[in-house]
Amino acid sequence: MRGAIIYNGFWNREGPSDPVLRLQGAAEKQGIPLPALPNTALTAMLGPEGPTVLGMPTADFVLFWDKDVRLARTMEACGLR
């Protein structure tokens, strides 16, 4: 199992906040890779083949630690829960 955590890249320009780092550490203790990505590193695309999210690594689940509702809905439409 592999996950990802998306955080607000505008508010946390220096990197992930403490809660994000704690979530990462807890997941790693369980053997679950959980890379942290700022929402600013992702691009939601809506095309004729359907929605895609550029910059998103392969993941079975996503923890969405942000308020970007459009990005979250696009990720859900891509099958990421």
What is the general shape? globular
- Structural class label: alpha/beta
Number of DSSP E strands: 5
Mean pLDDT: 90
**Termini separation:** 13 Å
Q: What is the helix tally? A: 2
Structure characterization notes:
It contains 2 helices and 5 strands. The protein has 81 residues and is α/β, with parallel strands linked by helices. Helices cover 26% and strands 28% of the residues. The model has no long low-confidence stretch (mean pLDDT 90). The chain has a 3-stranded parallel sheet with strand order 2-1-5, covered by helices on one side.
How would you sum up this structure in a few lines?
The chain is of the alpha/beta class. The protein is built from two helices and five strands; from the N terminus they run E-H-E-E-E-E-H.
List the defining traits of the structure above:
about 80 residues, alpha/beta, three-stranded parallel β-sheet, two-stranded antiparallel sheet, 2 helices
Write the layout of secondary structure elements.
Layout (H helix, E strand, L loop, with lengths): L2 E5 L10 H12 L6 E3 L4 E5 L2 E5 L6 E5 L3 H9 L4
Parallel strand pairs: 1-2, 1-5
Antiparallel strand pairs: 3-4
